[in-house]
Amino acid sequence: MLLYTMSALENIIEFKSSPQIKEKLTSYSIAKKFKEGDVILNENVHIKSIPIVISGSLKVLRTEDDGREILLYYIKSGESCIMSFLGGMHHETSKVKAIAEEDLEVLFLPIEKVSSLIKEYPEWLDYIFRMYHKRFEELLEVVNAVAFKKVDQRLLDLLHKKADLNQTKIIAVTHEQLANELGTARVVVSRLLKQLEEAGELELGRNKITLL
Fold this sequence. Notes:
By secondary structure, this protein is of the alpha+beta class. It has helices spanning 2-12, 20-28, 82-89, 111-120, 122-148, 151-166, 175-182, 186-198; strands at 30-34, 39-41, 49-55, 58-63, 69-75, 97-100, 104-110, 170-172, 202-205, 208-211. The protein has two domains: 2-147, Sandwich (Jelly Rolls); 149-211, Arc Repressor Mutant, subunit A (Orthogonal Bundle), CATH 1.10.10.
């Protein structure tokens, strides 16, 4: 497991000037595997470790008081959740929920090791800032989409994101799942999907959607 994780880190995280940081990450952390749909992090729980995705991907969502959810961003190989960094370092509970978008392996770095790595390796701090910048831009996209885009365009954008993430035009997803990620009702998604199919944008199947 250690050799596999080291090899994966070599490919996905660039710490060329300080290769020792990869050894520290693997010695400090615990690697775990998850199945599609598994909850990696729940809201309102104390953050004890930082997830770094080794393979696969997960989605980060925010749940409102009325139970509606909205997708904030995806975390892919080599990336981490900046919300976990910030919450863990300030001893706060999680404000988001993270769910496996597909089968994945995650490296969990204990929160107490984050600060020591920052002091010892400037590259680690640069990695955190790069993740912060990426997530900030993605959150701006979410705000822009909710404020200015119609739901049908947001739905089509989400489907294309999923296709790019999984590198396939055939997306295994239910109308309910899409509705949850968009923060809308299932009947709305079903109606819009039918309209998009009639417009030649996609083809509907049983629990799957094919982009055309």
